[in-house]
């Protein structure tokens, strides 16, 4: 599991800055990939790029990259049938995005939802 804190922490985030003394929200992400296939590599790169563009004072991300070749049971438990698949769990809500995550507007909308 990797915790990712965006690097541009001096800029306020899209939803404004958090109240003084409040910890940034931590968003749990799971990226299901199929080894080092081109779409999987692109998805991981695009996700890291998107995360870095979001201000750290607003939120941080806890990212798990899960290879379905070695962890099939986890994919089955999360109902993943296509890779790459990004799952974001935020409270009791779950958002899913499938593909190489090259549609940056959709990816940002999901991360900031």
Which properties best describe this structure?
Glutaredoxin; 5-stranded mixed beta sheet; single chain; 29% strand; alpha+beta; 3 helices; 113 residues
Describe the model.
The protein is of the alpha+beta class and 113 residues long. It has one domain (27-111): Glutaredoxin (3-Layer(aba) Sandwich). The chain contains 3 helices and 5 strands. It has helices at 38-52, 72-77, 104-111, and strands spanning 2-4, 25-33, 59-67, 85-90, 93-98. It is globular and about 45 Å long.
List the helices and strands and how they pair.
Elements: E1 2-4, E2 25-33, H1 38-52, E3 59-67, H2 72-77, E4 85-90, E5 93-98, H3 104-111
Parallel strand pairs: 2-3
Antiparallel strand pairs: 1-3, 2-4, 4-5
Helix pairs in contact: 1-3
């Amino acid at each position: 599991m990797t915790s990712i804190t965006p690097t541009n922490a001096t800029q306020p985030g899209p939803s404004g800055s958090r109240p003084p003394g409040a910890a940034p929200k931590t968003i749990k992400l799971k990226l299901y990939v199929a080894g080092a296939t081109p779409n999987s590599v692109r998805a991981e790169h695009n996700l890291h790029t998107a995360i870095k563009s979001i201000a750290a004072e607003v939120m941080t991300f806890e990212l798990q990259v899960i290879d379905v070749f070695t962890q099939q049971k986890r994919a089955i438990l999360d109902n993943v049938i296509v890779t790459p698949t990004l799952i974001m769990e935020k409270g009791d809500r779950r958002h899913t995005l499938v593909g190489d995550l090259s549609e940056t507007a959709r990816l940002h909308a999901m991360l900031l939802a």
